[in-house]
Design goal:
With 72 residues, this protein is an alpha+beta fold. The protein is built from two helices and four strands, in the order βαββαβ. Helix content is 29%, strand content 32%. The protein is globular, with a radius of gyration of 11 Å.
Length: 72
C-alpha cells in the first residue's frame, strides 16, 4: 500500500461526489479523501502499489478536472 497525492481543481462538495463515482470503480483503492481547504485542493489516495498515478490523472481529466500528482 502507498499514498498517492494529487493537486486538483475540485472545489465543491458536489464535485467530490462526482469524483467518488469515478474512484469507486478503481480496483486497488482502499481509501481516499480531499482537503478542499488547501490551496491545491489535495486528493489523497491510499492504494495498492499497482494503482497508476497517470491513470488517476487521466480519469479525472477526462471528466473535467485538472489533476496532477505531487512529489511527496
Amino acid at each position: 500500500m502507498g499514498v498517492l497525492v494529487f493537486t486538483t481543481t475540485v472545489t465543491e462538495a458536489e464535485q467530490v461526489s462526482e469524483v467518488r463515482a469515478l474512484l469507486t470503480d478503481v480496483s486497488g483503492i482502499e481509501d481516499w479523501n480531499f482537503d478542499l481547504e488547501d490551496c491545491d485542493r489535495i486528493l489523497r489516495i491510499v492504494a495498492a502499489d499497482d494503482v497508476c498515478p497517470r491513470y488517476i490523472e487521466q480519469l479525472l481529466q477526462t471528466n473535467g478536472f485538472c489533476c496532477h500528482e505531487l512529489d511527496c
